[in-house]
């Protein structure tokens, strides 16, 4: 009886562990990585088809004043930083201060910042990269 119960528990445990594992995501290139840019984006040589293969579809397609295509790839990331200051004074603090206290009774401080990166690629009439620029902004 004990062996059967032990075998059942072991089997169920292995099934639970196996169901939690995941297959790795397909490796996609980050268009904002300097190495990826240098390898795949060559002015006067790279075509729109090669851009699609290397980086995927752009986030926005527009035209410049010469009616030539301009592709924009963009990415925004948010970062949050938090810290705890003090502990155990939850019942003795005024309401505005108590609202900063987390569930453990510690005073919390949270900061959020954003980082935006845009890759702007200009093509000529032959659909070949004329020039590009990478814009970075942190706020």
Please bin the fraction of helical residues. 25-40%
How do the SSEs run, as a string of H and E? HHHEEHEE
> Please, what is the average pLDDT?
75
Overall number of strands = 4
Which labels suit this protein?
elongated, 4-stranded antiparallel β-sheet, 4 helices, 139 residues, single chain, alpha+beta
How would you describe this protein?
With 139 residues, this protein is an alpha+beta fold. It is 27% helix and 35% strand. The chain has 4 helices and 4 strands; from the N terminus they run H-H-H-E-E-H-E-E. Strands 1-2-3-4 form a 4-stranded antiparallel β-sheet, with no helix packed on it. Strand 3 (107-123) and strand 4 form a beta hairpin. It starts with a helix and ends with a strand.
Please give a quick description of this structure:
27% of the residues lie in helices and 35% in strands. It is of the alpha+beta class and 139 residues long.
Element layout with pairings:
Blueprint (H helix, E strand, L loop, with lengths): L1 H19 L13 H7 L7 H8 L4 E4 L5 E17 L9 H4 L8 E17 L5 E10 L1
Antiparallel strand pairs: 1-2, 2-3, 3-4
């Amino acid at each position: 009886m004990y062996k059967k119960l032990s075998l059942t528990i072991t089997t169920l445990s292995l099934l639970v562990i196996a169901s939690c594992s995941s297959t790795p995501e397909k490796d996609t290139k980050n268009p904002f990585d300097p190495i990826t840019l240098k390898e795949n984006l060559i002015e006067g040589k790279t075509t729109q088809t090669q851009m699609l293969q290397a980086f995927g579809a752009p986030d926005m397609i527009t035209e410049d004043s010469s009616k030539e295509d301009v592709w924009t790839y963009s990415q925004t990331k948010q970062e949050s930083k938090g810290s705890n200051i003090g502990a155990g004074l939850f019942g003795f603090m005024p309401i505005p201060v108590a609202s900063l206290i987390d569930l453990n009774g510690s005073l919390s401080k949270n900061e959020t910042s954003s980082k935006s990166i845009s890759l702007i690629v200009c093509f000529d009439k032959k659909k070949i990269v004329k020039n590009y620029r990478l814009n970075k902004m942190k706020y």
